[in-house]
Write a structure and sequence with these properties.
Helix content is 14%, strand content 49%. Strand 4 and strand 5 form a beta hairpin. Strands 1-2-3-5-4 form a 5-stranded mixed barrel. By secondary structure, it is mainly beta. The protein is elongated and about 60 Å long. The protein contains 1 helix and 5 strands. The N and C termini lie far apart (64 Å).
Length: 87
């Protein structure tokens, strides 16, 4: 087995089919993805990094991760959000 993991250029996320379209070395392909989060978060491809696992240059599965700057923005937003009961 010749397994590699590479970061690829994310083109499109198809939430219904759980697939992404990506570009690598000038070629476009699609593969199933794994994402641990709300599926409603998957609307903006620019917010994610995509890593694809290849076996002998054939895409097997991909993992989506939130970009670091986006994660910081969400963390900052959550720190500024307060919820409580006023009596």
């Amino acid at each position: 087995m010749n397994i590699t993991v590479e970061q690829v250029e994310l083109i499109k996320i198809n939430v219904d089919k759980s697939t992404i379209s990506f570009k690598r070395n000038g070629l476009t392909a699609s593969v199933k993805f794994i994402y641990y989060g709300s599926r409603s978060d998957l609307t903006a491809t620019s917010a994610f990094n995509a890593y694809v696992v290849f076996n002998k240059s054939v895409p097997v599965v991909s993992f989506l991760t939130l970009k670091e700057d986006i994660a910081r923005m969400i963390e900052q937003r959550n720190n500024n959000f307060f919820c409580g009961i006023v009596g």
